[in-house]
Amino acid sequence: MTARAADRARYDRATAHLDAPVAIVDLEAFDANADDLVRRAGGKPVRVASKSVRCRALLERALAKDGFAGIMSYTLAESLWLARSGFEDVLLAYPSADRSGYAELTADPKLAAAVTVMIDDPAQLDLVDAARDGGREVVRVCLELDTSLRMFGGRVRIGARRSPLHSPADLADLARVVVRREGFEVVGVMAYEGHVAGVGDALAGRPLRSRAVRLMQAAARRELAERRAAVVRAVRAVVPGLEFVNGGGTGSVQHTAAEDAVTEIAAGSGLYVPRLFDNYTSFTGRPAALFAQPVVRRPGVGVVTVLGGGYPASGAAGADRLPEPYLPEGLRYDPQEGAGEVQTPLLGSPADDLLIGDKVWFRHAKAGELCERFDALHLVEGDAVTATVPTYRGEGRTFL
Predict the structure, then answer these.
(1) Which of 131, 77, 55 is nearest to 99 (CA)?
(2) pTM of the predicted structure, to 2 decimals
(3) How much is the average pLDDT of 247-264?
């Protein structure tokens, strides 16, 4: 029996009492992935990206491990909710226009001490001040650096379109604006190199593209390491007491951690290891989060139909954004139908061994987005479900 077949048998036994659709997290795999992130971080703390987890119980499990510290959140409403729930160090990774949230933040000393907001434009400070509604708490601010690789005089850009702040002078100028402004304090710098951390460099069946990606990423790492160090020096000249410099992501942990200027690493997807993180030469994780759909039809030889399953991931549309039929091995989508909203035909010889009511296990393309489809995660240890915990959605929270 292969390792994957053994996992399928375990998951089927563990969830035999549960009707599909159902979502699980394999705690042995989750913990092994967490340990690997800490190992790759080389002694620098790992800040958990909550959008890749979206379950308070599993955020707590990760943060209880040595080597993890703090949360990187994705909306202001989520940040405030987590802070009110007892999480004491929450870095909001994206600028917000949530006026009511800023009114709460600036009126509550506990929230103001726990939550750091992201900015890359003085206009964002104006929005906070306009929302204060009498709140006078000092707002902790992090400045975001654009990590994109620019070549040929800027005519070619590789990387996400995030912050407009690219040079050391850009960051230092905004730091000075914040320092001069009452009610704000610069405490950190963040730089997320998504074109390195979030792009696989070992694409199956595409050796030339994989080599091109590796060459691009090597150049991007060299350029960013030099520029990030200069940015941190420039900001520290304005804010000597800077608390943290955050960088990285699951796919670049060890590379980013090697930079002296970086004090902490962000990672989250590496805990669940969705299918988009299969194609890396720098690490190998264990799939920890899966969902099962039930077989409801057997239309013919070599085909079964499962209920639902059309859970595409965000990003540029493509086959790589679809969930992967994972267990049993050897199933594939019908190219005429793909992953359906209400039903999904699956082709392949393993279909002939599946009965009505059997479970087919899938991996989502991304990590936390799975939790927007399920209100609970069943935690599996060995061949048993040992706990069931709510996702954000299960707690009535839909932040995006």
Answers:
(1) 131
(2) 0.93
(3) 92
